[in-house]
Write a structure and sequence with these properties.
alpha+beta; Beta-lactamase; eight-stranded antiparallel beta sheet; two-stranded antiparallel ribbon
């Protein structure tokens, strides 16, 4: 049974205190000076966790593959892909390929909009897509299978029933991110794969393998990308450092700042949601993928974190993902 966040925090605090020097005050001092052992012991309490890297500034605090393919082999980052697509949107805006987040999908990529789509679809903006507020029925969860088995993923997503106003409540839907990715491919005249490699992979010095494409040839815009844990950490460092990596402004600071501003709230986790990134009350920017894949940055604490987990098991907000949040807010944040 998964622990609640409060239970995990209590249990991990008790477990972590034991190996250090007594009394308790000395234990806390030792843990603060050497956070690696505390992080390692907490990480080993998760049987589903594959790897974790924690970097504070330029110092690698902890890096270990407890199980799984290792730190230098690719892992499916699942819906963390959505956060990378959001970064590509910011870069496309910086390059002038799309006019801005307020641009309507029908203006940026008119050929993607089905002729028989509901009238509300004409009002959907790129901001609505990147913040999961398109107002259309979801293509995730129980609807995911029917969507990916359809003959036209973009058309299927845009033909979903209207269940809210564009720009209204958050409706988590991989189809929205996929439509955004297809729109970027149309606007830039470059596939999403090439954009990911040229605009993120090259400046970050990471490999981005080809991933799933839809029947029309558009690379999937919200799932199935693969990165090594070390590459995930570099994405976290990019967000932590205001879009800069190795002295180069890869994504504008204005876009990173805008991504960190909650525009809506997840009905499941309660986390805020900005431009493709979840925002925690404790100050993390988080990319979250099925099974417990996490790319996290804490700008105030100068932390970058990458976590991979068993991709075959769900990580619910009140289950394993909630436990990972307690881990981020506990031993990791204390680093």
């Amino acid at each position: 049974m998964s622990l609640t966040r409060r239970q995990f925090a209590t249990a991990s605090a008790a477990a972590l205190a034991a190996p250090f020097v007594i009394p308790a005050a000395a234990s806390r001092t030792a843990a603060a000076q050497t956070p690696g052992p505390a992080i390692g012991e907490a990480a080993r309490s998760f049987p589903r966790l594959h790897s974790i890297l924690v970097q504070r500034g330029d110092e690698m605090v902890f890096a270990e593959a407890l199980r799984g393919p290792g730190l230098d082999r690719t892992a499916n980052i699942k819906s963390c892909s959505k956060s990378l697509v959001a970064l590509l949107l910011g870069i496309a805006i910086d390059r002038g390929e799309v006019p801005g987040v307020d641009a309507r999908l029908a203006e940026v990529a008119p050929r993607l909009v089905p002729d028989d789509a509901e009238a509300e679809v004409a009002q959907i903006t790129l901001q609505d897509l990147v913040t999961m507020r398109a107002g259309l029925g979801a293509t995730s969860g129980r609807e995911y299978g029917a969507w990916v088995n359809s003959r036209d993923w973009v058309s299927y997503a845009l033909r979903r029933p209207v269940v809210g106003e564009p720009g209204g409540r958050m409706i988590y839907s991989t189809g929205s991110s996929h439509v955004l990715g297809a729109a970027l491919a149309v606007a830039a005249g470059e596939s999403l794969l090439d954009q990911a490699r040229n605009r993120l992979g090259d400046p970050l010095g990471i490999e981005i393998p080809a991933w799933t494409r839809d029947p029309q040839g558009y690379y999937m815009g919200g799932n199935q990308m693969a990165l090594t844990p070390r590459a995930m950490l570099r994405v976290a460092m990019l967000m932590r450092d205001g879009g800069v990596f190795d002295g180069r402004q890869v994504v504008s600071r204005a876009w990173v700042d805008a991504s960190a501003e909650p525009r809506t709230q997840s009905p499941w986790s309660g986390l805020g949601y900005g431009y493709g990134w979840f925002v925690s009350d404790s100050g993390y920017l988080i990319a979250r993928g099925y099974g417990g894949q996490v790319i996290a940055a804490h700008r105030a604490r100068n932390l970058a974190v990458a976590i991979t987990s068993d991709p075959a098991q769900p990580a619910r907000s009140q289950g394993y993902f909630g436990d990972l949040m307690a881990f981020l807010d506990g031993p990791i944040l204390e680093a």
